[in-house]
Each structure stands twice: as structure tokens, then as C-alpha cells.
Automatic annotation (TrEMBL):
Secretion signal span: 1-36
Record keywords: Copper, Membrane, Metal-binding, Signal, Transmembrane, Transmembrane helix
Subcellular location: Cell envelope
Native source organism of the sequence: Flavimobilis soli
Composition skew (Low complexity), residue ranges: 146-174
GO cellular component, one term: plasma membrane
Descriptive protein name: CopC domain-containing protein
Pfam (any one): CopC
Stored PANTHER family: INNER MEMBRANE PROTEIN YEBZ (PTHR34820)
Residues of the CopC domain: 37-130
Length: 229
């Protein structure tokens, strides 16, 4: 009796379709959870902001409370030196990093990495600038250009501005390359590692679909044979 109930064509079709529906729902639920990882919602200084005075700290605010493990924050200048005065302080969804009081003018990048409440690591960058100095050193090179221009228009004096201005494009190219490298980092916000759970669910959905197709074909053939005289 038990074997007949399990092998009933209609029951097999129903159970296969029910299992398929559950697998699809579980897959989309897991995808929704993956999208719901905690993200950076606010920062002080803001991304791309230029400050006249040296900030006392960097404050990052996230969409949810973070886990107090694996938290790293680096406030690096163009040369890669870290200007964080101490370790970051985590308070729920807020992360605070005090800065060195002698922070010089220039461009800085806050590189952060935290662990979301669901255990998933999230990372990103926040660039900002202090003072009027260009991140590529263009201000210094431009400030030295008027002196050769005011000198006697000789061959040596006319070639001096081009020589002094030459490092500026190179420095700018280096800075751009560094930013591109940072954005291509595997730990960037958009570069999330593949979830093993999602892979398993995809395989389960495929298996259930294959089972459903097999059951439908089997029932169809069985009915066709039973109708033959």
C-alpha cells in the first residue's frame, strides 16, 4: 500500500512540482539575503569632500550593526602612509577612527573593511582632501612656473618650465593608476565572493527540474501505453 501511494503518477507529479516550488522560493530568498548585506550609508568626511581644516576623526555609518571581528580602517595619503592615530572604534553601526593631529594637506583615501551582521565581509573606499593642495602635486609645480617665465628669455630659462612641469603629469598618472588598482581590488564593495549556499541551491533547483521533467515524461508514456488496445 505504501509503495503504491509513493509511486502513484499523480502524487509524484504533485510532489515534484511542490519540491520545485520550494526550491525556487528558497533560491530567491537566499538571493534577497545576499543583497541585504550591510552597506556604508554615510561618512564624515563625505566621499570626494574637500576640507579646509584637518578633521579630528573619520566616521563611517552602516545600514546595520556590524560584527566586532575583522574590522580594519586605513587612512592613507598618496604615498600610502597610514594617518590613523589608533585602532577603529566600533559602536553598533558606527565606526570611528581618530586621525593624527599633524595631518598635512593633501589627498587621502579611507580604505575600510568590516564584517556584516550576517557574517559577510564588506569593504570599500572613501576619498577626501584636506587643504588646497592638488593630490598629484600640480599646485607645487604650477607655483614654480612664474619664476622661469620672469627670467631672461634664454634657451635655458625657456626649457626650465617644461622640465619642472614634467613630473606633474607623471604624478597624476601614478595617482590615477593607484585609484584604478584600488577600485579593481577583489575586496571592493561590488566584488563579493560567490556564496556556497547559492551554488548548492542552484544545483538543487536544476535537480528538481530534471526530476519533474522525468516524472512528466514517465507518466505521459505510461498513459499512452495504457490506452493502447
Amino acid at each position: 500500500m505504501w509503495w503504491r501511494v509513493i509511486t502513484s503518477p499523480r502524487r509524484l507529479v504533485r510532489r515534484s512540482l511542490a519540491a520545485l516550488a520550494l526550491a525556487v522560493v528558497a533560491f530567491f530568498c537566499s538571493a534577497g539575503v545576499a543583497i541585504a548585506h550591510d552597506q556604508l550609508v554615510d561618512s564624515v568626511p563625505a566621499s570626494g569632500e574637500r576640507l579646509d581644516d584637518v578633521p579630528a576623526e573619520v566616521r563611517l555609518t552602516f545600514s546595520g550593526e556590524l560584527m566586532d571581528i575583522g574590522t580594519t580602517v586605513v587612512v592613507a595619503d598618496a604615498a600610502g602612509q597610514d594617518w590613523a592615530a589608533s585602532a577603529p572604534v566600533l559602536d553598533g553601526a558606527a565606526l570611528t577612527v581618530p586621525l593624527a593631529p599633524d595631518l598635512p594637506d593633501g589627498a587621502y583615501t579611507v580604505r575600510w573593511r568590516v564584517v556584516s551582521a550576517d557574517g559577510h565581509p564588506v569593504s570599500g573606499t572613501v576619498p577626501f582632501q584636506v587643504g588646497d593642495r592638488s593630490p598629484s602635486g600640480m599646485t607645487a609645480s604650477r607655483g614654480s612656473e612664474p619664476a622661469p617665465a620672469a627670467a631672461t628669455p634664454s634657451a635655458s630659462s625657456t626649457s626650465a618650465p617644461s622640465t619642472s612641469a614634467a613630473p606633474a603629469p607623471a604624478a597624476q598618472a601614478t595617482d590615477v593608476a593607484e585609484r584604478q588598482t584600488t577600485s579593481a581590488d577583489p575586496q571592493a564593495p561590488g566584488a563579493e565572493p560567490a556564496s556556497p549556499l547559492r551554488t548548492v541551491l542552484v544545483a538543487a533547483v536544476g535537480a528538481v527540474i530534471a526530476l519533474g521533467i522525468y516524472v512528466v515524461l514517465h507518466v505521459t508514456r505510461r498513459r499512452a501505453r495504457s490506452r493502447q488496445p
